[in-house]
Design goal:
The protein contains 16 helices and 22 strands. It is an alpha/beta fold. It folds into 2 domains: 5-248 and 452-470, Aldehyde Dehydrogenase, Chain A, domain 1, CATH 3.40.605; 253-434, Aldehyde Dehydrogenase, Chain A, domain 2. The protein binds nicotinamide-adenine-dinucleotide.
Length: 481
């Protein structure tokens, strides 16, 4: 199913009602770099209205039996699945990813909601004896701001919506201004499911994110985006001590040990780096390869890079990689490629795009063994460029992999899994995989070390992050007359 976004109308969801923007802003098609659709811009008054609606809805939502909120999450999942094609089509158009991947993103949102619905909200008994009964339970925080980036417009929401709502909070979802459309449609289809004010969706440009984080009406800011913005969000949230969860940038290292089967791991490493055109926080962004297999693996990867199908995913289901998703990110990646060229680092395949070509396409590019000081090694590219880095000593590879301000994910690849696991244990990252990459699960907490974030999403810890711990004690003394 394909309905051009320009033929559709998009409204915000505030207090369960459709709300047109005070003004509108343009959304761009990354395939062409031209106009895609108009999206509503949220004014200050509309932001106040959304906060007031979420606040008004909070007491009744929080007072529901937990089982009722679990059921709401399951109904949300059913409704989202019933609109898979509509939502996926918008993700394809505004974000530029292949249609099967967009469908999987919608399915993932439904899956995450259902799995989150089953997560227990534990109550701990601290003391239970003749003197006193003491328990610690988890109560909702209030109104949550969910601020998300553009790489997985719906997928990023899935880490926040289910846990926040299950815990008893109401939510204002603010997606990236680069990709507002699927989230606006999500709010629309869920109007029939949730009580008014429980989930509000607002969009806008010109600093809506900072207007949200500096608004005194939020009890928690759940933010996913760059490390630079994350610092601003944390400073802003400090004003009224709003809780924060920060899921930030990464520069994930993969270490390939010399005993791997090169032909077998090459496609896995290729997709670990280039899925979603490299625009995944957990994508492999530095590939450390043992010298014994460096040339063979580089050759295999170069072949995959040269033969992957790029194109317009809205027109062709067989497209494997779409464009970079927006002009800002395209310029970031081109800037890094220019730096590689200026410094004389060889490209094994790919390279700078033709400046006259339409849209934001960049063919996946391998950079041949640049120095550790290279910008492409030190900075987060968040795009289809991968430095291949040669090592001879595993301890040295670990030191180089850990030499980063980031600590989001990492992976180790080797035939001897015990040896690979021993290496994995030395890596400084929130998640370290052995012989796979980027595998996430709704019941497994995920978050960044160092400047890749604060707190976790998913799993029981991800739900508890949307609560306050509350201890209740009963002293067993008779007060009866
Ligand atoms: P970004 O920081 O520019 O924007 C993220 C969101 O924050 C958007 O909704 C944006 O409108 C909003 N925003 C911008 N400025 C703001 C401000 N001052 N206050 C509040 N909100 C503000 O990031 P991006 O370019 O959208 O996303 C790419 C980055 O996100 C990469 O660094 C990537 O690694 C990171 N990311 C991290 C994870 C993770 O789980 N750790 C997942 C995906 C992306």
């Amino acid at each position: 199913m394909h309905i051009p976004a320009s033929d559709q109308t998009f409204t915000m969801t505030i207090d369960g009602r459709p709300v047109a923007g005070a003004t509108e802003f343009n959304v761009t098609n990354p395939v062409t770099g031209t106009f895609l659709a108009l999206a509503p811009h949220c004014s200050d008054e509309q932001l106040d209205q959304a906060v007031a609606a979420a606040r008004a809805a909070f007491p009744a939502w929080a007072a529901l039996a937990l089982e009722d909120r679990r059921q709401y999450l399951r109904t949300m999942a059913d409704t989202i699945e019933a609109h898979t094609e509509l939502l996926a089509d918008l993700v394809v158009q505004e974000q530029g990813k292949p249609r099967p991947v967009a469908r999987a993103e919608v399915a993932g949102l439904a899956y995450w909601l259902r799995a989150t619905a089953d997560i227990p909200l534990v109550e701990t008994v601290n003391q239970d004896d003749s003197e006193r009964r003491s328990i610690t339970r988890h109560v909702p925080l209030g109104v949550v701001a969910a601020i998300t980036p553009w790489n997985y417009p719906l997928g990023q929401a899935s880490f926040k919506l289910g846990p926040a709502l299950l815990a008893g909070n109401t939510v204002i979802l603010k997606p990236s201004a680069f990709t507002p459309l699927a989230n606006l449609k999500l709010g629309e289809v869920l109007r029939e499911v949730l009580p008014p004010g429980v989930l509000n969706v607002i969009t806008g440009t010109g600093g809506l994110g900072s207007r949200v984080t500096s608004h005194p009406g939020f009890d928690k800011i759940s933010f996913t985006g760059s490390t630079t913005t994350g610092r601003t969000v944390m400073a802003s949230a400090a004003a009224n001590l709003a809780r924060v969860t920060l899921e930030l940038g990464g520069n994930d290292a993969a270490i390939v040990l010399p005993d791997v089967d090169v032909k077998q791991v090459a496609p896995q490493l290729f997709w670990a780096a280039f899925a979603n055109t490299g625009q995944i926080c957990l994508a492999t962004k530095r590939l450390y390869i043992h010298a014994d297999i460096y040339d063979a693996l580089a050759r295999e990867l170069a072949h995959l890079v040269a033969t992957v199908t790029l194109g317009d995913p809205a027109q062709d289901e067989n497209v494997e990689l779409g464009p970079v998703s927006n002009l800002r990110q395209y310029q970031t990646v081109v800037d890094l490629l220019n730096d590689c060229r200026d410094q004389g680092y060889p490209f094994l395949s790919g390279g700078l795009p033709d400046p006259d070509s339409a849209g934001y396409f960049i063919r996946p590019t391998l950079v041949d063994n640049p120095p550790d000081s290279a910008r492409i090694v030190r900075e987060e590219q968040f795009g289809p460029v991968l430095p291949l880095l040669k090592y001879t000593d595993t301890a040295d590879a670990v030191t180089r992999a850990n030499d980063s301000e980031f600590g989001l994910g990492a992976s180790v690849w080797g035939a001897d899994t015990e040896a690979a696991y021993a290496v994995a244990q030395q890596l400084q990252a929130g998640t370290v995989w052995v012989n796979e990459s980027m595998h996430l699960h709704p019941q497994v907490p995920f978050g960044g070390h160092k400047q890749s974030g604060i707190g976790v999403e998913s799993g029981q810890a991800g739900v508890l992050a949307f609560t306050n711990a509350q201890t209740l004690t009963i002293k067993h003394t008779s007060t009866a007359a």
